[in-house]
Amino acid sequence: MKKTPEPREEDKIPPPVATGSENNSAETETTDDLVASLQSDLDRFRDLALRTQADFENYKKRGAREKDEAIKYANRTLLERLVPVVDNFELGLSAARDQSEHSPIYSGMSMILKQLTDFLTESGLEPVDAVGKQFDPNLHEAIGHEPSDKIPEGHVIRQTRRGYRLKDRLLRPATVVVSSGRTGRK
Q1: In angstroms, rounded to a whole number, what is the distance separating the alpha carbons of residues 121 and 127?
Q2: 163: region left, alpha or beta (phi > 0 left; psi from -120 to 50 alpha)
């Protein structure tokens, strides 16, 4: 059997000395106050730990969401710069069509435009339809109003520049002319 060493004299804690009932109740109140204070501190630190943990979880979720969005829209700048090139290419194709639709230049430019638009579609870019649609300031930029007997008021008569969406965001609004209704109203 193992022998446990005897406690040293300085390690011994003297028992509390009872000098009367007043001392006991004062010590009890002091102890109760100390326990209440410690419990209050414990509750406060537990609440702080829970809040910090919740804040950290929210931070991680927000970081993951921002990372996903950055990946989803990583090509945005490239596509914004490529869209005017497509516009100019379409203008050149229109001019080549006016010369002759059967020319090899027109055929070649048509094939290149098809490849370019297919690439843009695969990248998540889609054109905004405008002609004949109700004017929507979230999708269209009005540059004028014209009277029209065929198109109802508030609808797009023609599009002067195509608009584009990148996935679920508007990359560029369509520039349009909006109908102001019939001419010669009574």
Answers
A1: 9
A2: beta
Answer whether 80's CB lies under 8 Å from 173's CB.
no
Query: Per-domain residue ranges for the chain?
Result: 125-186
145, containing H or E segment:
strand 140-146
In this prediction, residue 6 carries a pLDDT of 65
Would you say residue 186 has pLDDT above 50?
no
> What CATH number should be reported for the domain whose range is 125-186?
2.30.22.10
Please say whether the beta carbons of 157 and 177 come within 8 A: yes
What is the pTM assigned to this prediction? 0.61
Chain-wide mean pLDDT for the chain? 83
pLDDT at residue 54 above 80?
A: yes
Q: What angle do CA 182, 184, 186 make, to 5 degrees?
A: 100
Q: Which two tokens stand for residue 78?
A: 């490239």
